[in-house]
Design a protein that fits this description.
4 strands; mainly alpha; about 240 residues; 9 helices; globular; two-stranded antiparallel sheet; single chain; two-stranded antiparallel ribbon
Length: about 240
């Protein structure tokens, strides 16, 4: 067993001295995006830390078992999805035959969001996402907030690549209905394109977690490189019903 601080092999990746990447380095690289992944899907700040801790433990156990992971930060999203769904199955006390992803967070007893929005529009989108089924919310956030490709989302969700487009299309439709209802209650005009709202809110809000993970200049969740944006737009253009 490796102890914290010892080098963990990551095939194809070495530091500038040719040594192994450590657990601490992997954590610092992956934690900001993982924190954003959980931020709008739980109710309490400590739950973010607990789910992150479980996800990293499983990642390190996988690596210590000899598994060859070209990109631990990509692989951990699949672990995080499983950890999240296990969390809500327990918390909502769902029956074994019930699919967690078919339920919205609000229907499973989620309270207030654990994020700090930077604008009213961002808060509207974040809250509305919690009212669509969890599968839709997860796919929409991965695509619009994290800039993940269809292939990456398919790997995380353990679904076919073609199903990603279906979930995005249905997710946007469901989100539009929720936002329209919320804005109608306030006498505001319904949005013409939900995709634009998601695009403008792509800088995922910070969580209320009292202990922030180091960011170290990662572009994920903030202003993305142009190549990533081009890839996201190319994927989006293949989905009908925007």
């Amino acid at each position: 067993m490796h102890r914290p601080g010892e080098g963990i092999p990551r095939p194809g990746t070495k530091d500038h001295q040719g040594g192994h990447v450590t657990k601490e380095e992997i954590y610092e690289e992956c934690a900001p995006a993982l924190e954003r992944f959980f931020a709008n899907k739980v109710s309490l700040p400590y739950e973010i830390e607990d789910l992150m801790h479980t996800s990293f433990l499983r990642l390190f156990a996988k690596m210590e078992s000899g598994a060859e992971l070209e990109d631990p930060c990509a692989f951990i999203f699949g672990i995080a999805k499983l950890v999240l769904y296990e969390h809500w199955r327990r918390k909502a006390r769902l029956a074994s035959h019930e699919e967690v992803g078919e339920h919205p967070l609000v229907a499973m007893g989620a309270g207030l969001s654990s994020i700090l929005a930077e604008s009213e529009e961002q808060a509207l989108v974040a809250d509305a996402l919690r009212e669509v089924r969890l599968d839709y919310q997860t796919v929409l956030e991965l695509f619009y907030w994290e800039g993940k490709s269809y292939e990456e989302i398919a790997a995380t969700m353990e679904i076919a690549k073609g199903t990603v487009g279906t979930l995005l299309r249905r997710g946007r439709r469901a989100l539009r209905q929720v936002i329209s209802r919320k804005q109608a209650q306030e006498g505001a005009r319904a949005p013409s394109r939900v995709a634009k709202l998601l695009e403008r809110s792509r800088r995922a809000p910070s969580s209320r977690s009292p202990r922030r993970a180091p960011h170290h200049g990662s572009s994920r969740g903030g202003t993305r490189p142009r190549a990533v944006l081009r890839r996201r737009r190319a994927d989006e253009s293949s989905v009908d019903g925007k």
